[in-house]
Amino acid sequence: MSNVLLKVENLKKYFPLRTGMFSRKSGDVKAVDDISFDVYEGETLGIVGESGCGKSTTGRVIMRLHEPTDGKVTFKGVELTALSEKEMRLARRDIQMVFQDPYASLNPRHTVGKILEEPLIVHGIGTQEERKSKVHEYLEIVGLSAYHAKRYPHQFSGGQRQRIGIARALMTNPKLIIADEPVSALDVSIQAQVLNLMQKLQKDLKLTYIFIAHDLGVVRHISDRVGVMYLGRIVELAESEMLYEAPLHPYSQALLSAVPIPDPIYEREQVILNGDIPSPSNPPAGCAFHTRCPFVMDVCKQQVPSFLQAKPGHSVACHLYSGK
Ligand code: SF4
């Protein structure tokens, strides 16, 4: 396997919960609760889970758009979590984000040329002439044209706006792109075009992706490995094929049982989960999934399962596999 580009160790992000007239802190919402994983150079690591599982917060904490509560993030051997604000701004040249809603993330009053030039100005890259030529080059790289630089975001379709969002993320020649639900706001036919573009760019520009999504079908299409999150924790992490063909964690099994299989001969039994996701401000003791798990045992209600390797390339946090 290639080199580790990004290392996340015991990362936590708790948001204080405030109540009453004086906004006293009454607890924490544990959006990300002690997660660790590596991202290898050139791979796509998918992160999936239901809404509110902490996957988007994970991306934002890696970028330090939210400050972590605890834990360590190391990128190319540099500990991002120890950098000053100024040093972190410089580091963001190498790590960029693509957001779900390209319209909301593009300034409607600026031309596309200005939007794409901005990261170059922020990082002091190139002369005015060089910046203009790079804007034109990257518009073409993402399947648009140089003349689009003069237009405004509202003059584009959703798919084109996401291409602009991707171009903006690429302007500083980053190594890692964190894409947070980059196609979920798009029509299905457009989703495939944007995913194909992302795959082509990854190959051409030697990019590494963290691809965050709730749609398991989309994540499978693009990911080499996939991590499944539940209530702020990674419960399973495996190579994409292993996870989709033989998921180990009961939560992954339930999520995958709802994904249609494009083979009419093969049927998968659908696992229906009981109840709603518990609140991350008051997660169940022991295994956080125990209130919904069809295989719950006594130990599950008391002990948090460790995240262990069940077989090479496949780790899971579940007492069914920990030999307890
Ligand atoms: Fe289910 Fe227990 Fe495994 Fe949690 S640890 S997923 S409750 S079997």
Blueprint of the fold:
Elements: E1 4-19, E2 24-40, E3 44-48, H1 55-62, E4 70-75, E5 78-79, H2 85-91, E6 95-98, H3 102-105, H4 112-122, H5 128-141, H6 158-170, E7 176-180, H7 188-205, E8 208-213, H8 216-222, E9 225-230, E10 233-239, H9 240-245, H10 250-257, H11 298-302, E11 308-311, E12 314-316
Parallel strand pairs: 3-8, 3-9, 6-7, 7-8
Antiparallel strand pairs: 1-2, 1-4, 4-5, 9-10, 10-12, 11-12
The site of iron/sulfur cluster has 14 residues, from loops.
Give a written overview of the molecule.
The chain has 324 residues and is of the alpha/beta class. It has two domains: 4-94 and 174-316, Rossmann fold; 108-173, no CATH class. Helix content is 31%, strand content 25%. The strands form two sheets. The protein has an eight-stranded mixed beta sheet, sandwiched between helices. The chain has a four-stranded antiparallel beta sheet with strand order 2-1-4-5. The longest helix has 18 residues, at 188-205. Bound molecules: iron/sulfur cluster.
CATH class categorisation of the largest domain: Alpha Beta
The chain-level structural class is alpha/beta
Q: Give me the CATH superfamily of the largest domain.
A: P-loop containing nucleotide triphosphate hydrolases
DSSP summary, beta strand count: 12
Major sheet characteristics: 8 strands, mixed
Cα end-to-end separation: 31 Å
Number of structural domains: 2
Biggest sheet, strands in spatial order? 6-7-8-3-9-10-12-11
The run of helices and strands is: EEEHEEHEHHHHEHEHEEHHHEE
From the spread of the alpha carbons, the general shape counts as globular
- Rg is 21 Å
CATH architecture of the largest domain: 3-Layer(aba) Sandwich
